[in-house]
Amino acid sequence: MPTTTPPPGKAALTGTPFADVTASATTLRRFLHGLPGVDTVGLEARAAALGTRSIKTTAKAYAIDLAISMIDLTTLEGADTAGKVRALGAKAVHPDPTDRTTPKTAAVCVYPDMVATAKEAVADSGVKVASVATAFPAGRAALAVKLADVRDAVAAGADEIDMVIDRGAFLAGDFMKVYEEIVAVKEASGQARLKVIFETGELSTYDNIRRASWIGMLAGADFIKTSTGKVGVNATPANTLLMLEAVRDFRAQTGVQVGVKPAGGIRTSKDALKFLVLVNETAGADWLDNHWFRFGASSLLNDLLMQRQKLATGRYSGPDYVTVD
């Protein structure tokens, strides 16, 4: 049976093929540069081919409900108010107030100062509260500031922490700094699950995305996540496929299962179902659960609700039948 992520640091790798990988900056760099190079053409062709798979009506209804249950319903704007967060929490608990059979979303995701408000809004519903931290989205702050950000969110009741890696350090080749920062944030997160955001649109190459995925997993991430949603290129089928391959391979070699969260740019039911096909065909059915796969989204939920209503009634309800976030 796969396990959840062990405690951070080298203890997590004891007894695995990676026990000595993080012993020094040199060994970590050697390991990361020794990973197989990514076949760009092959990766994108496979992602495109899987995207053509059709899902029939019965399976489609199941997949839509599954996708709803995997959403981290998100508001990360400077103009966020307590009222907006309370409304978002209410929508997460009852996405379609006219149909109480509609699944809850997995979580609401907010800034640290809104965690307490979100926690109150979702109460004991089972919806998690996730908080971005570590100077999201740029990550340009001293480590002490980032850790304080995390601790504040956890103290306010965050169930999950979404951190951003130091892309500057990564692109400069300082992989050990990135690794050690993730380990420190994991420790500061306590019992909260940790999602590590790579900002794939800034990493430039698929090889870099693969290396970042392994750094995150070696450091004890509970999830690896594509993007903040704040740059031009966010989640794509190809970069998500690459990350799914990474978590699949990591579990095969360590027994440790790590989740994946594509975020940013996934707006339609059609897109979401394509990602679920990627999950099933690449990592496998064990990841088809919101404990292991999430969508970072805001507008996606409304389209899923409209498609769900259409399957139930035979009529397309239109955007006026769902709330505007």
UniProtKB/TrEMBL annotation:
Which InterPro entries does the entry link to?
Answer: Aldolase_TIM, DeoC, DeoC/FbaB/LacD_aldolase
Q: Which residues form a coiled coil?
A: none
Per the UniProt record, which EC number(s) apply here? 4.1.2.4
Q: What class of enzyme is it?
A: lyase
Catalytic function, reaction form: 2-deoxy-D-ribose 5-phosphate = D-glyceraldehyde 3-phosphate + acetaldehyde
The answer to whether keyword Repeat applies is no
Q: Name one Pfam family in it.
A: DeoC
Q: Which UniProt keywords apply?
A: Lyase, Schiff base
Please give the pathway this protein is involved in: Carbohydrate degradation; 2-deoxy-D-ribose 1-phosphate degradation; D-glyceraldehyde 3-phosphate and acetaldehyde from 2-deoxy-alpha-D-ribose 1-phosphate: step 2/2
Name the family: Belongs to the DeoC/FbaB aldolase family. DeoC type 2 subfamily.
Q: Specify the protein name.
A: Deoxyribose-phosphate aldolase
User: Taxonomic lineage per UniProt?
Assistant: Bacteria, Bacillati, Actinomycetota, Actinomycetes, Kitasatosporales
